[in-house]
Amino acid sequence: MTPETYFETPLQYLKGVGPRRAEEFTRAGLTTIDDLLHRFPLRYEDRSRLDSVASLEPGGTASVMGEVLQGGVRATRRRGFAIFELALADATGVVRAVFMNQPFLRDVLTPGARAVLFGPVEPRRGGGLQFTNPQFELLEADGGDPADDDDARIHTGRIVPVYERIGGVSPKMLRRIVHGALQQLPAAVADPLPADLRTEMDLPGMRDAICDVHFPPPDSPVESLNAFRAPAQVRMIFEEFFIFQFGLRLRRRSLDAEHKARVPKVDDRIRQSALRVLPFKLTEGQKQALQEIVADMCRPQPMNRLLQGDVGAGKTIVALLAALVAMENGLQVALMAPTEILAEQHHRNLSQVLSASRFKIVALSGGMAAAARRETLNALKTGAAQFVVGTHALVQNPVEFKALGLAIVDEQHRFGVWQRALLRHKGLCPDVLVMTATPIPRTLALTSYGDLDVSTIRELPPGRSPVRTVAKPEGRRAEVHRLIERELGAGRQAYIVYPLVEESEKLKLKAATEMAAHLEQEVFPDRRVALIHGRLKEEAKDEVMAAFARGEYDLLVSTTVIEVGVDVPNATVMVVEHAERFGLAQLHQLRGRVGRGSEQSHCVLLYDRAVSRAGRARLKAVTESTDGFVLAEKDLELRGPGDFFGTRQSGIPTLRVGDLLRDQSIMERARTEAEQWLESGPAAAALVDLVESTWAQRFKLVGVG
Fold first, then answer.
1. Which of 595, 616, 614 has the alpha carbon at shortest distance from 605?
2. Pairing of the two strands 404-410 and 332-336
């Protein structure tokens, strides 16, 4: 068997797996031996040097091994909530462990069982110490023979990998299965990292790294292993980032090899045309971004640029001026928005600004009447329309352009990368400008946007006051209602946002439907209250939102569907119920729905008194800063990269061993090395072949940026 075929072997053929467990592995995204061996342990324990019970101190984290003396379940005052408690003894003493609401453990951790406990050590009420909700592992279970020396050597007396449970496959079973896979590993394994690069960075070879990641040598510092900075771990993390960055560089190089059929030029006539439509003076940040975009447009290679700015930073006017440059050069422009209502808003606003120009702007959406749709499609095909605003309908057939020169994508993370790619293919290698109001932390800029140049607008346009943001407990809702009434009495409008659509006993969150009726009938009986939520059909949702924007309602009760882009300058109050349930970026986006006019605006975050530590950290961050860039970094820190956009199609790579937050410095180094190796000529040929054949599938990404 070759190394390649061994790595691609389905897991069900591995000793200890079989068809039933293979199904559980598949549900976790593991189908081959390669997948299994690229799944790092959660942490490592040095079971050759475990803590003794006598050495435990409060406030630390410890691992002890011993025998369960006794265990039992006790009830609490809370209905349905029980505590399982056990006593574990080693040669030096006895320690207690408590497990909250896990009564089933009395049938698992039974008297006489030998176990390892790992977790925080705390003072025990009444004296002594205890583990609270520790992780545990039974040492003589899961079908292993306690008299089997080989089996015992895997689990004790050494540095032991501790894996995350997969369905019914315990950490101990996983350790045994991984150990078995490594025993059959071919002696020679192809290494994707060039030998010169490994030597330069002092990295181990592929085979040694895989073995040492799972079963580290006896002299490995456990602190380094648990920080994922042991040489074998660094090598595997670097390899993943290096291959990813090399693929991005290749992708960028292929884009740069393309040439536009028509390269725009900028002269005094075009500058005067831009000045005529400009409704206000640009900020310095807007000027800088526009210069970068226009410079790209005047190159023969197609532009691939991200324009990021905080909520209300004025990205759209910059995109419009770029559109003018394209149209003055005889090219067409397409602006794609994520929702019908945002597309309509863009169409309305851009039509007003362009009303004095000679260019025709049209809209294209999925819900258009057939005759209007045919007319619009014909205008695009013949070139009678120069600017089209639409939704994903723009990338569907039979949309054809006469000369698409600029594609603008608004709120990029709401689209799949494939939609961006399809729009690109509608034109003659058009320039692509992506706009996002969710500032991208640098770590993610290196990955999900690694093939894009980035322009950033930091400051807000003059005349905008920061939104006053406060967090209040639910018990102070009455004073929040008084604030709303005061603002409505002054002729302004307000939002109240709820996190769920219908009642949920489990989460005990108020349903937006019930609360809208309560607010309309009892709290604001003299006000016009509307409800909008995710279960409404798109047309009904858009109509309510448009009516609110026209001032036909005073108060809009909503779920999170209003977080992106809808512009109602007269709205001055945003109240977020159960704010602790929302992500930091969501809270900042919701706050951005107010403060869009000249009046002072308010954002009130109502929270449950039983808010979690993470929820409290989010509320504190939002009340302390209105800077979306600061909050984006904090959000990444609190949530982690995989959840930052809330969608897999955002262009974030599926990483098996690297962590974008933890391993940022390794990613930076990988990017530098990838750029250098791509320029190394013949030495990079094998690497190019490898990356081109495996990159998209390996990182679960579509090819075009």
1. 616
2. parallel
CB neighbours of residue 418 within 10 Å: 14
Task: State the amino acid at position 689 in one-letter form.
Answer: D
Phi-psi group of 411: left, alpha or beta (phi > 0 → left; psi -120 to 50 → alpha; rest → beta): left
Residues in the chain: 705
Q: How is residue 375 written in tokens? A: 């007319």
pLDDT band at 421 (very low <50, low <70, confident <90, very high): low
Longest dimension (CA), the chain: 89
**Residue 430 CB contacts under 8 Å (≥ 6 apart), including other chains:** 260, 302, 331, 404, 405, 406, 407, 424
Residue with tokens 């050069």: 329
Closest by CA position to 82, among listed 101, 59, 97, 69: 101
pTM for the predicted model, two decimal places: 0.67
As a whole number of Å, the end-to-end CA separation of the chain is 38
Comparing C-alpha atoms, which of 86, 149, 97 is closest to residue 121?
97
CB-count burial class (<10 Å; 0-12, 13-18, 19+) for 39: buried
Place of tokens 């729905």: 593
Q: Cα-Cα-Cα-Cα dihedral of 527, 533, 538, 544, to 10°?
A: 10
- How do residues 15-42 score in pLDDT, each as one tens digit? 889 999 999 999 998 999 999 999 999 9
Q: Which residue ranges form the domains of the chain, and what is each CATH number?
A: 1-48+157-227 (no CATH), 55-138 (2.40.50.140), 268-457 (3.40.50.300), 468-625 (3.40.50.300)
> Which residues are bridge partners to 96 per DSSP?
87, 130
In the predicted structure, residue 187 carries a pLDDT above the cut 80:
yes
Cα separation values, 363 from 113, 321, 410, Å: 70, 19, 15
pLDDT at 506: 41
Residues facing 132 on adjacent strands: 98
Structure-token pair, residue 48: 């050759």
